[in-house]
Amino acid sequence: MAVIRMMVHRGPKLISAHVTPETLAGSIRGSHLVHGLVRRYMRAVFDMADLVLSVSKATTAELEELGVRGPVLPMSNAIDERRIRPLLERRAELRAGFGWDDRPVVLGVGQIQPRKGVEEFVACARSLPHLRFVWLGGMQFGLLSDARESLTRLRADAPANVTFTGLVPRDEVFAYCAAADVFFLPSRHETFGLATLEAATAGLPLVLTDLPCYQEWLKDAYRHAATVPGYVALLRDLEDAATRTHWGTLASRTAVRHDSRMLADGLREAYLLAHARHNS
Questions:
Q1: What confidence score (pLDDT) does residue 182 get?
Q2: Which of 160-174, 198-212, 260-274 is predicted least confidently?
Q3: How much is the CA Rg of the chain, to the nearest whole Å?
Q4: pLDDT at 3 (0 to 100)
Q5: Which residues pair with 133 in a beta bridge?
Q6: What is the pLDDT of residues 56-101, one digit of tens each?
Q7: How far apart are CA 192 and CA 4, in angstroms?
Q8: pLDDT in the model for residue 163
Q9: What is d(CA 195, CA 176) in angstroms, rounded to the nearest whole number?
Q10: CATH code for 81-258?
Q11: Fewest CB within 10 angstroms: 125, 130, 141, 147, which?
């Protein structure tokens, strides 16, 4: 439990705000019934820290609305690109290992829950039967997963061009990113979008919902829509190899700014600031 860990730790306390009360909506069954309790619990955890790291301006706004009293420092997510970019040289090998043919592969990554837009993902696949759609991720909350029964039926009734892999190791996620052609995540809420950063690092063109966190760090390096017909139109456009290359290059250039080596100095300063506040 986060509260217990924060209470027993005697040194500087620094916490990264990857989860907010809003991320539980559409994730856990009945979360709306305990929304007030969850808000109080998260506020208590964040207030016990000497410093809270916020992964985006959108997350900072949520923390302010939550009433977090302690200092909040912007610190976006990062990834070590050395774990992904070398895999691009093995793209043909990886595709063969996954059993893929020459059809473009549309990749989605995330828990199977309404918030991630799984229904929209499958609906687009029905409209584009000539493309292969692959979703990485499972129901991490088990029996507590929101809409578990309907999403289980959705998987069972999905068209033949859709594959649900279930949970896979992180390095295997990187391999899928290196082998795929397009990243598609019609999520309704994200604090930053780490899976999106991983896909961008692999040079995949991005089709997303136009969320505030994406507006902040991706700028104009992604394509977005708000409806299934809109997503379908964008995915059709990305069947063209030159168009995929253009948008994939934009995404890759943006991802470079979030390589872990480039953010190391900022994280070091954050720990020093937390240490100073703890000892003040």
A1: 98
A2: 260-274
A3: 20
A4: 64
A5: 106, 162
A6: 999 999 999 999 998 999 888 888 999 999 999 999 999 999 999 9
A7: 26
A8: 98
A9: 12
A10: 3.40.50.2000
A11: 130
pTM above 0.70, yes or no: yes
Q: What is the pLDDT of residue 19?
A: 85
Tokens representing 195? 């899976």
pLDDT at 263: 79
CB atoms within 10 A of CB 72: 18
Rounded percentage of the chain residues whose pLDDT exceeds 90: 66
DSSP annotation of 15 = E
**Strand ranges in 167-257 using DSSP code E only, listed in sequence order:** 182-185, 206-208, 223-224
Question: Taking a C-beta distance cutoff of 8 angstroms, is the pair 136, 176 a contact?
Answer: yes
Q: In what order do the strands lie in the sheet with 162-166?
A: 162-166, 132-136, 105-109, 182-185, 206-208, 223-224
Residue 189's Cβ-count burial label (10 Å; 0-12, 13-18, 19+) is buried
In this model, does residue 6 exceed pLDDT 80?
A: no
Instruction: Give which of 139, 141, 106, 136 is closest to 124, Cα–Cα.
Output: 106
For the chain, helix, strand, coil in percent to 5 are 55, 15, 30
CB proximity list for 88: less than 8 A, separation 6 or greater: 178, 202, 203
Instruction: Output the pLDDT for position 215.
Output: 96
Sign of CA dihedral 222, 166, 122, 175: positive
CATH class label, 2-78+260-278? alpha beta
Task: Delimit the CATH 3.40.50.2000 region(s) of the chain.
Answer: 2-78+260-278, 81-258
- Residue 43: exposed, middle, or buried by beta-carbon count in 10 A (0-12, 13-18, 19+)? middle
Helices 118-127 & 148-156 angle (0-180, nearest 10):
20
